[in-house]
UniProtKB/TrEMBL annotation:
Pfam families found in the cross-reference section: Glycos_transf_1
Descriptive protein name: Glycosyltransferase
SUPFAM superfamilies registered for this protein in UniProt: UDP-Glycosyltransferase/glycogen phosphorylase
Source organism: Prochlorococcus marinus (strain SARG / CCMP1375 / SS120)
GO molecular function per UniProt: glycosyltransferase activity
């Protein structure tokens, strides 16, 4: 129990129900926050799309689900796209319900990366905090975050410094990392298995580069994750010899980590400024070294030469060299990093301190 338990309303992503995989890393982040804050004695109400469910360890949270049409994701729009909200849109419904139930609560913690909750923050009585889950992909979103930073900087937090650097902020960014229930990830000391790649299968994730590495090395690439863009997935498959890619599907964490843990290395190839890169942390939690571009969150999470290899962005030859040198990395280093930097307990403590200090409690 903390000295001052809070009543917090959490807003989930307006893109897919929790468990669908459509919300990407936000789904797991939300679960980590809920579990950690509950253990600290806080009272949590989650407002989430209809169909959402919370895994074990989160039973103490109340969940309110709402029906509506998914918001489209910013990363799949042109940089100067306007905000569009469909009729019966999920975004305003989540916000409306969160505001309604926020009477007698201390704060709202918003995890949906969208304009509406950011924009209305200065105009409503409930204190809304925003954990920003993406780097800058939209001019409108960048301007909205910038404007909120001018008046309510302490209400904004980010996963990594690289992500935060896309935003023009009035002060140093509040950077909180991310967290995972590490007991769900089993350390596998021996990893002689295939190369792995994980994430939403969508152009910003750069699967084609990892496929090329595997093809050039005559290796197999296991791919886990939701296929968001089928045409893109088929195109990548056609670019490499048949059988190079083995599609493993979108698995639950238990199965995902058990398969991922047998990999020799995870190749991480973001084409955008990845905000954090959950799959990078999850691979390391299983003892899998990561070969990644020095771009975005993964460039901050991986220590080159210790937990994997970082290479210049888009340097496929560099990735190959990293894979060929993977035996030089001790798998135990990877798990040690996860224990020290990516537990949900520590992440929740950082979230707690951020909100408490933003509320002027400490
Ligand atoms: N994931 C999963 N099952 C799979 C593959 C991926 O649950 O088979 C999850 C993974 O645990 C991670 C998320 O998909 O939390 C991808 O998040 P990440 O931060 O890597 O990228 P994002 O999709 O948010 O851009």
């Amino acid at each position: 129990m903390t000295s001052s338990p809070l009543r917090l309303i959490l807003i989930s992503t307006p893109i897919g129900f929790i468990g669908s995989g459509k919300g990407g890393g936000v789904e797991l982040t939300l679960v980590a926050i809920i579990k950690g804050l509950l253990e600290m004695g806080h009272h949590i109400v989650l407002v989430a799309p209809y169909g959402s469910f919370l895994p074990s360890g989160c039973e103490g949270a109340e969940i309110i689900t709402v029906k509506g049409i998914d918001q489209s994701s910013w990363q799949h729009q042109v940089p100067d796209a306007p905000i569009t909200i469909p009729f019966n849109g999920m975004l305003p419904k989540l916000v409306e319900v969160a505001l309604k139930v926020s009477k007698n609560s201390d704060a709202i913690l918003n995890l949906c990366y969208d304009w509406l909750p950011l924009w209305l923050t200065p105009f409503v009585e409930p204190k809304i905090f925003h954990l920003i889950s993406m780097a800058g992909v939209s001019k409108l979103m960048e301007a909205t975050v910038r404007d909120l930073s001018k008046t309510h900087h302490s209400r904004l937090a980010f996963h990594t410094f690289s992500q935060a650097s896309d935003y023009e902020l009035i002060d140093q960014p509040i950077v909180l990392g991310n967290g995972f229930d590490l007991k769900n990830y089993h350390f596998q000391l021996k990893g002689q298995g295939p190369l792995g790649w994980a994430g939403r299968v969508a152009p910003e994730k750069g699967l084609e580069d990892a496929a090329k590495v595997a093809a050039d090395l005559g290796d197999k690439l296991f791919v886990w994750g939701l296929i968001e863009d089928k045409a893109y997935a088929s195109k990548i498959e056609s670019l490499v010899p048949e059988g190079t890619i083995e599609w493993k599907g979108f698995l639950n964490t238990q199965e995902f980590q058990s398969q991922l843990g047998s990999c020799r290395a995870l190749i991480n190839t973001p084409k955008w400024n990845e905000a954090y890169g959950n799959v990078v942390a999850e691979a390391m939690a299983c003892g899998v070294p990561v070969v990644a571009y020095r771009r975005g969150g993964p460039g901050e999470l991986v220590q080159s030469g210790v937990t994997g290899w970082l290479v210049p962005s888009d340097d496929i030859e560099g990735l190959k060299k990293g894979v060929l040198n993977i035996d030089k990395i001790k798998r135990q280093n990877c798990r040690d990093w996860a224990n020290e930097s990516a537990s949900y307990q520590m992440f929740a403590k950082r979230i707690n301190s951020w909100i408490q200090s933003g509320l002027g409690i400490r």
